[in-house]
Amino acid sequence: MPELALLEISLYLITGAFAGLLAGLLGVGGGLFIVPVLLFVLPLSGIESDQLMTICVATSLCTIVITSLSSVVAHQKHRAILWPVFWRFFPGLTVGAIIGAVVADLVSQQLLKNLFAVSVILLSLKMLFHYRPKNASEMPGVYGVMSSGSVIGVLSAMIGIGGGALIVPLLSYWKTPMAKAVATSSACGLPIAIAGTLGFIATGFNQQNLPTYSSGYVYWPAVIGIISSSVIFAPIGAKFAHKISAPLLSRIFAVFLFVVGSKVLFF
To answer: What is the pTM of this model?
Structure first.
C-alpha cells in the first residue's frame, strides 16, 4: 500500500481519539463525529466517488465495531451493562441495521446526506436542551423493545452511527439509571455496527468507482487509522463516565453537532 499523506493519517488518528472518548463517556458510537470528518478528509485523499456519503457511513459503522468492543469491555468491569435488556434489543437492532444498509444503497446520495444532517441537528438540539419526556415509562415487553430496536437499527445504519444517541435517551425514559443506560447502549452498538457493516460490504460488492483498498463501501485505510486511536481512548471515556457527570461536555458536543449538521445540510 502506498504511504498515505501525513495529514490524512493524523486526521484519522485524531478522529478516532475523539470518537473513542465520546463512545465511552456519552454512550455514542462516534459516528456522529466520524461521518462528517470523513466527508471532509476523503476528498482530500483523492477519493471523488459519486458514492462518497455511503462510503463515509459504511466506514464509520465498521470503526464502531472496534470502538464498541473496547467500550463494552471497559463498562463490563463496572458491571453496568444490562445484558437482559441488550438481548431484548438484539434481534431488532440486527435486522434493522441490515435493512438500513440496503435502503442506504438504494436512495440518492443527497437524500442520505440530508437524512444525516437533519438527524444530527435534531439530536444536537435534544442534547443541548436536555429534552426528556415529562412522564417516564416502564420498559415494555420483549416485542416492544425489539420493535424499538428495529427502528433504531434502520436509522443508525443509514446515517452511520452506533445508535447510542437514540438508545441512551430511550433507556433513560424507561427509568434506567444513566450510567447503566450508557453502558448498555455501548453493547447495543455492536449488533448495529456488525450487521450494518456486513450489509454495506454486500451491497457495495459490485459497485464501480469505489476507492482502492475497499470492501464494498468500507474504506479500510480510514478504518485502521481511526480504530488505532479509538480503542485507546474509549476505555478512558468509559472510566470517566463512572466518575463524573458530563453535562458541559454534552453541551459542547451538541453545539459541534449543530454546526456540523447545518454545514452538511446547507453546503
So the answer is: 0.86
